[in-house]
């Protein structure tokens, strides 16, 4: 994700001291604003480099795979647009899933920083991942609520004093998966992308499910590496390598058979 010269939010160890009843006018002492230079060094997407020319061979697809890929590409092409009611409703739904007991004061609010957005308007963070990155987060919250809350609240493991911002990390994961699977190409040019399309042809929600697996795997890598905020790119690279290995395991026909799927809990 590109450095746009904006501020970011680094989330320290999760604090439960915020008085939610006055959340519209409060910010947690555990939220620290900083320079955008940190975002470029610590939380930029590790897979954003594009090549001017790419001579990698492409893989032939079945008609079903082509159709599934086209539908997924259509989703990827949709930018978040706050003027669209569906997009606004999805953002409100994400808040309700994340903090069901807390009323959201508005789509532009300091409250969003508690989820790990860079500022009070999360729509600015969707530029790197598009509307699909919001859909991914919402799918995660609805289908694996326990794992979603565990990551949001940083409940598991010996956490770093400086943690990765949950929501911004989620947008990075969406972007990383799109690049890793080569989903913007007419045909996949890497075997991992061609393999994924087999899963997609069997399950239209395969990308969303893989997102959930990847987010949980990333957090496991974070803990095992005893990482801190500035190690985020290193953790993402390790996560990508592990995910590629798992996707290429022979005889796996469903994403639910991936070893890292077992990390998820509902």
Describe the structure.
- This protein is mainly α and 266 residues long.
- The protein is built from nine helices and three strands.
- The chain has helices at 36-42, 63-76, 85-98, 131-143, 145-152, 166-180, 191-202, 206-224, 232-247, and strands at 8-12, 31-34, 162-163.
- It has a three-stranded antiparallel beta sheet with strand order 2-1-3, with helices on one face.
- Helix 3 packs parallel to helix 4 and helix 4 crosses helix 5 (145-152).
- The longest helix has 19 residues, at 206-224.
- It is globular.
- Residues 1-23, 25-42 and 44-53 have low confidence and may be disordered.
SSE diagram, text form:
Blueprint: E1 8-12, E2 31-34, H1 36-42, H2 63-76, H3 85-98, H4 131-143, H5 145-152, E3 162-163, H6 166-180, H7 191-202, H8 206-224, H9 232-247
Antiparallel strand pairs: 1-2, 1-3
Helix pairs in contact: 2-7, 3-4, 4-5, 4-6, 4-8, 6-8, 8-9
């Amino acid at each position: 994700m590109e450095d746009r010269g904006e501020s970011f939010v680094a989330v320290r160890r999760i604090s439960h001291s915020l008085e939610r009843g006055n959340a519209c006018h409060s910010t947690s002492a555990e939220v620290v604003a900083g320079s955008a230079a940190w975002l470029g060094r610590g939380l930029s997407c590790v897979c954003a480099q594009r090549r001017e020319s790419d001579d990698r061979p492409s893989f032939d697809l079945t008609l079903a795979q082509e159709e599934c890929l086209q539908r997924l590409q259509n989703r990827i092409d949709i930018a978040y647009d706050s003027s669209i009611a569906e997009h606004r409703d999805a953002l409100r739904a994400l808040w309700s899933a994340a903090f069901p007991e807390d009323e959201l004061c508005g789509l532009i609010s300091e409250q969003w920083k508690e989820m790990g957005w860079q500022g009070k308007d999360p729509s600015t963070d969707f530029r790197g991942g598009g509307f699909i990155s919001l859909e991914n987060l919402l799918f995660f919250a609805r289908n694996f609520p326990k794992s979603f809350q565990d990551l949001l609240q940083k409940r598991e493991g010996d956490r770093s004093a400086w943690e990765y911002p949950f929501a911004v990390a989620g947008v990075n994961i969406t972007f990383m998966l799109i690049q890793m699977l080569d989903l913007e190409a007419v045909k996949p040019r890497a075997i991992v992308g061609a393999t994924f399309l087999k899963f997609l042809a069997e399950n239209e929600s395969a990308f969303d499910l893989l997102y959930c697996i990847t987010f949980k795997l990333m957090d496991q890598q974070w803990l095992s590496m005893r990482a801190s905020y500035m190690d985020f790119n290193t953790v993402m690279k390790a996560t990508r390598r592990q995910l590629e290995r798992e996707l290429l395991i022979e005889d796996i026909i469903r994403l639910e058979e991936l070893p890292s799927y077992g990390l998820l809990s509902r």
